[in-house]
Amino acid sequence: MMFVTVGTRPDGFDRLIRQLDSIAVDFDEPIRAQIGAGEYVPENVEWFRFTSEEEIHELYRTATVVIAHAGAGTLLTALSYGKPIVILPRREQHGDHNDDHQTELANALSERAEVFVVHNASELQRAMQKARSITVKSGSEDNSLARFLNGYIEDIDA
Question: The Glycosyl transferase family 28 C-terminal domain covers which part of the protein (predicted)?
């Protein structure tokens, strides 16, 4: 099962969910999507808006691939479970966010083998296929990601 999450922002991320819904039929693996407060309701993937923290962690744990926005908490959680992650950052120009800090964070992580950053929704399918083909060691064995993200967040806040 591939797990999609858009986080807990009060607005959805319909750009991501629409594209996933349009390509879901091309995969032989189920896709489960947390769509948050988005307006678009997918037809080709199992979805829910919000759930418990325990359920979210179970979805991360059992997923083969995580597809998500570039929220720091989302990235840290996915990688701590040793999951490859496909990232479509929320962008100001698309009305997904009020700035482009998610693009900056995604680009900063893009050299990691388990991270697949796409800047256009049309690139999502290829990135998902690549992500499904790799195996990742658990991030709990390597605290460098946590240190990197904490330092990155501190720099943004400064």
Answer: 2-130
Given a cut of 60, is residue 97 above it in pLDDT? Answer: no
**CA angle centred on 154, ends 148 and 158, rounded to 5°:** 145
What is the SS3 assignment for 14? Answer: helix
- Main-chain phi, psi angles of 88, to 5 degrees: -115, 100
Considering the domain 2-157 in this protein, what is its CATH number? 3.40.50.2000
Q: What are phi and psi of 38, to 5 degrees?
A: -60, 155
Q: Which residues contact 1 (CB under 8 A, 6 or more apart)?
A: 29, 30, 31, 32, 59, 62, 63, 64
**Is the pLDDT confidence value at 29 over 70?**
yes
Mean pLDDT to the nearest integer, 41-69: 97
Say whether 59 sits in a helix, a strand or coil: helix
